[in-house]
Amino acid sequence: MTAVATAGTRRIRIGVDTGGTFTDIVALDEDTGELVTTKTPSTPADPALGFLEGVHKVLGLMGCSGSDVTAVVHGTTVATNQLLEDRIDRLGFITTEGYEFLLEIARQAVPDGYGNSYFWVKPDRIVPVDRVRTVGGRLDHRGDEIRPLDEAAARETARWFRDQGIMTLGVCFLHAYADPSHEERMREILREEHPEATVSLSSEVLREYREYERAMTTLVDAAVKPRVASYVSGIKERLDAFAAGTDGLPRRVPFAIMKSNGGILSAEEVVHQPITTVLSGPAAGALGAALIARAAGFDKVLTCDGGGTSTDVSVVLDGEPTLTTEGSVGRYPSKIPMIDVVTVGAGGGSIAWTSPEGTLKVGPKSAGADPGPLCYGKGGTDPTITDAHVLLGRIPPHLLGGEIPLDTEAARAGVQRLADRLGLGVEECATGILEISAWNQANALRQITVKRGLDVRDFVMTTFGGSGSLLLCRLIDILGLAGVVVPRDPGNVSAFGLLTVDVRCDYVRTAVRRHPELDLDRLAEVYADLTAQATTALDKEGFTSADQQYVRTADLRYFGQAFEVRVPVPDGPLDAGLADGVAKSFHELHRRLYGYDFQEDPSQVVEWVNLRVTGVGPIRRPVLQKLPAGTGGPDRAATGSRPVCFDPADGPVTTIVYRREALAPGDRIEGPAIVEEFGSTVPVHPGFTVDVDPFGNLVVTRSTQKGA
After folding, report:
1. pTM
2. Is residue 631 classed exposed, middle or buried when 0-12, 13-18 and 19+ CB atoms within 10 A define those classes?
3. Under DSSP, is residue 514 helix (H, G, I), strand (E, B) or coil?
4. How far apart are CA 325 and CA 614, in angstroms?
5. Distance (Å) of CA 688 to CA 330, 682, 691
6. What DSSP character marks residue 4?
7. Cα(259)–Cα(389) distance, integer angstroms
């Protein structure tokens, strides 16, 4: 992203990650490399307030003003929360005549397997049948017109939605991925007959086959478009006013939004494709953790981002988070490329409760930022994971370095009421809450590794977020992890990740051909067209042709399979040798994923399905600095001690508390111990060791066998 001329004397780039409980901010001085981090409470009623308060706060810490800001990158949960909370306004759907029940039929898959068929109730469709309208006209799978678009019916449809007051519409015609002309003409008619409508076309949102997934992705894009556009434009306007120069006039500050695919895009462009932001926040955390872990020497990494409402986990291989096009947000599938993140309702604010059968449950319902846990003293009524930590002494009686005091007695009273219902002691109950939360996180980590044929025991884990490190010792034991890396300022890793992200633009086209019948000229033509689209997007973002990079991939399968494997397509002329090399790579990847391939069986034909190009505009990343070694041992960082309960059978034990900022590379701490810093706490259980690496990361491993 290119920056408009600045009015200040310093050049400050800021990352802002808005979470359910806190807004995290990281500022980078582009000239000196200085990094400053801070937090501020989120404002769910108006997230822009917490955003701007955080920007004010971090600039104050640096002694800077708004005129020094050169760029702001934002990870937002506006689209995510709208989908998770099912706040979908009235949507309309326009599709091909004869396909009005496309959404109702959907796919035959039943959640949790066919054993659930007797009990599963199909959820309401995103658009009910009475708000679906069809239009005549038909294309075949090659894009050839079989019947022309029925323009009279198209106008009648547009007027019907206008008269019904339905302002948000999705358009998905059969085989529009092969030729978008019918959809584009439908939009022109809508502009003439219903000019106030917000419209999403499937040929622009997701130009690949499979009508149901394409329709759903298009409708999700349409559903979140008004809210995302309003939110982003509102922040942009206030940000420009805040960053005014000495003349008092607004100054255009480059403002970018994190996308789910691990890239960023300018606010002006992202409002046209808001579905790309549905996993904006979790993607930034995975990228930040990947960079930190790779610098520390780890290439096979699990990431665990614990926030106030949920915990997000992902896999990093060779420094890159894994991607998927089979993701979903809530009950809504999405085929856009996104970092493969599994989310569980196990954050600091997750509520502990009893089931009708009288068993202890934790989450997914959360107390959020308002009213928050009982210990916040803001009117909360239910005990949470944070309350259990406070009661056991594992976190201090305050947050953010004393900015937010915690009411330990309120936490104890709430957990005691729950313990009485369960017939448990108060410490047993609190430990039970944390044990359930740890297993919820462990199951998510197993899910994201086992489905790829990966052994979780081969990985180290990077924990971050305000609550991400609180249960790391239990996760090491449950999963058999090699160890855990806790970065500096773990509560701000997602915001830091925003400053490490390139601009990325993804383009896809379905072009189904069996490998022996591959038309290489057509293949080259489609890749050239996709590359041209990526070039146009990167030009708009201000990147010169010399800086622009392109990554080609293709989705391949064996003929007759229903799902594909993503395979890299190397640079160079698309000749027979290159195509055969791609097919060979497919066989190898298929074996790695599923344990078999048909490379030696000529009867099993490879089929090309989707062609993809990703345009990349590289940005200047922060350089992680090694820290100087300290003098003496870790005792210099000790601030005192307090009783902490790690095991209710042993009761509270006197535990030394260390200040994270005073620890230095080479320090070693044996548990039990507590390591505290501004935005996070690391409880170190007995039998575990903490080593401080050259970058200041805490590397936690088990020092004695469990039970020894």
Report:
1. 0.80
2. exposed
3. strand
4. 14
5. 37, 12, 10
6. P
7. 33
Residues 318, 603: Cα–Cα separation, whole Å: 35
CA distance 199 to 167: 8
Answer positive or negative: Cα dihedral of 141, 144, 146, 148.
Answer: positive
pLDDT > 90: percent of the chain = 54
Q: Whose structure tokens read 């607004």?
A: 250
Task: Report the pLDDT value the prediction gives residue 18, as an integer from 0 to 100.
Answer: 85
Measured in residues, the chain has a length of 708
Q: 186-200, 391-405, 630-644 — which is least confidently predicted?
A: 391-405
Confidence of residue 7 (pLDDT cuts 50, 70, 90): very low
Give CA–CA dist 247/399, Å, rounded: 40
Nearest to 128 by CA among 162, 158, 166: 166
Give the CA count within 13 Å in the CB-facing half-sphere of 213. Answer: 16
CA torsion, ordered 245, 247, 248, 254, to nearest 10 deg? -30
For residues 625 and 35, what is the distance between their CA atoms, to the nearest angstrom? 10
Q: What is the pLDDT of residues 653-689, one digit of tens each?
A: 999 999 999 999 999 999 999 999 887 899 999 999 9
Structure tokens at 49: 């307030």
State in Å, rounded, how far the first CA of the chain is from the last one: 55
Residue with tokens 């009213």: 371
Tokens 């590379």 locate to 665
pLDDT digits (tens, 9 = 90+) for 575-606: 999 999 999 999 999 988 788 999 999 999 99
Distance of alpha carbon 224 from alpha carbon 221, whole angstroms? 6
Q: Is 95 exposed, middle or buried (0-12, 13-18, 19+ CB in 10 A)?
A: buried
Q: Detail the DSSP E strand segments found in 440-545.
A: 460-464, 483-486, 503-514
Contacts of 411 (CB under 8 A, 6+ apart): 373, 374, 375, 383, 386, 387, 388, 390, 391
Mean pLDDT of the chain: 89
Asked which of 128-142, 319-333, 382-396, 689-703 is least confident by mean pLDDT, the reply is: 319-333
DSSP string, 217-230: HHHHHHHHHHHHHH
The count of other CB atoms within 10 Å of the CB of residue 590 is 21
